[in-house]
Design brief:
Shape: globular
Largest sheet: 7 strands, antiparallel
CATH architecture of the domain at 18-102 and 140-156: Roll
Strand order of the largest sheet: 2-1-5-6-7-4-3
Number of strands: 7
CATH topology of the domain at 18-102 and 140-156: Pnp Oxidase, Chain A
Helix content: 25-40%
Number of helices: 5
Radius of gyration: 19 Å
CATH superfamily of the domain at 18-102 and 140-156: Electron Transport, Fmn-binding Protein, Chain A
């Protein structure tokens, strides 16, 4: 950004590039899934996720309220931040459409090993077998979130723009 900043009213120029967005999805293994309940209230829950085929994949037990809600109202969103990763101040909200996959044992058995590896829970074969025994149950569902649109924010780029505009006390301590 070459224009000098004199306020922070419009931050729309401070976006992640597509490559930065994908890097964050690789680095971060936790997201916040949001949906609405039957009364229209927004509800969210953190989930570990796998990203494959350009989609987000999570698993849960079929008796969770979010499963019923996402079946009825697939409009949802996934939020991912860079907190705890090597990236600084990167944030993404993805508008998504959810598909709940019930009873697809092949899909569950595809996702669970990827999930366990991603979150570091399968340190060895014995640990993997124990985790699979706990998670690979008949009531386990896979929820696929297909992106519709991405909204990103890059606070590191904002910090550079603020500093280059003469504001030298915009640091974090």
């Amino acid at each position: 950004m070459t224009e000098k900043l004199d306020n922070l009213e419009d931050l729309s120029a401070f976006k992640l590039t597509a490559d930065e967005r994908e890097k964050l999805f690789e680095l971060q293994d936790e997201c916040t899934v949001s949906w609405t309940n039957k009364d229209g209230w927004p509800v969210s829950m953190p989930h570990s996720f796998v990203r494959s085929e350009g989609k987000f994949w999570v698993h849960t037990a079929s008796n969770r309220k979010r499963v019923q809600a996402l079946r009825a109202r697939p409009q949802s969103c996934i939020t991912v931040s860079s907190l705890g990763t090597e990236m600084i101040g990167a944030m993404i909200t993805t508008k998504t459409l959810a598909t709940v996959h019930d009873g697809d044992r092949d899909l569950v058995r595809w996702l669970l090993p990827l999930f366990l590896k991603r979150v570091g829970m399968a340190a060895d074969d014995e640990a993997f077998d124990q985790q699979m025994a706990l998670l690979d149950t008949p009531a386990r569902v896979v929820i696929e979130f297909d992106p519709v649109d991405f909204f990103t924010y890059n606070s590191e780029a904002l910090s550079r723009a603020v500093a280059s505009s003469g504001y030298d006390r915009w640091d974090r301590t």
